[in-house]
Write a structure and sequence with these properties.
The protein has 234 residues and is of the alpha+beta class. The protein is 43% helix and 16% strand. The chain has a 5-stranded mixed beta sheet, sandwiched between helices.
Amino acid sequence: MTEISPGRPFRISDLPSEERPRERLLRLGSGALTNEELLALLLRTGIPGESALARARGLLAAHGGLTGLAGMSPEELARERGVGPTRAAAISAAVEIARRLPAETLSGRDLLNEPRLVKEFLRQAQADDTQERTGALYLNARNRLLKNDPDIYRGTLDRAVVEPREILRRALLGKAAGVILYHNHPSGDPTPSREDREFTRRLAAAAESIGVRLLDHVVVGREGCVSFREAGLL
């Protein structure tokens, strides 16, 4: 076992090789690693007096875990002690990859015939976000996914305000025949608000006037999803 000199900060290299995050990932798979080990691999190295594992643990504790870090911009991450622009870019890229993966599982599927798959995707992509986000799934005339646009608008913790024209402009540019609107409720409760219902009515009317179908509006929360179509609200 490696001996650590008194007063010298602990480093990952002080761990037995089989207990180091990179070696554990290669041997056991990424699912075996803790959140701090995964983040430490993105940080790669620590800072004077603090190992990469300790720095990762401190970042997670300071920002409410992975959810908090995922909600930070690259600029905000870069200002964190021991992060900087290069590591901030790596963390932001990893977060974006995680957000995009569920969308790829939907590509080419009949969304109208698989509402369970759509809601599961949206729950994974949106429910743990600390900020309200409005997005849309754009479909072709055969109800197959053309594009997932998850960041049409980022709002406050209370609500997101976005005009129908922006959503429909993107639909027309993407040659979409139908739209599934979605947004999350950071509170966790997916019950549609009065504002949600009013906006949906406005969007449906505007979409119809230009020949685009509003197929559904799904509200996502930790407690589940509510589909306007299934609830008879659309």
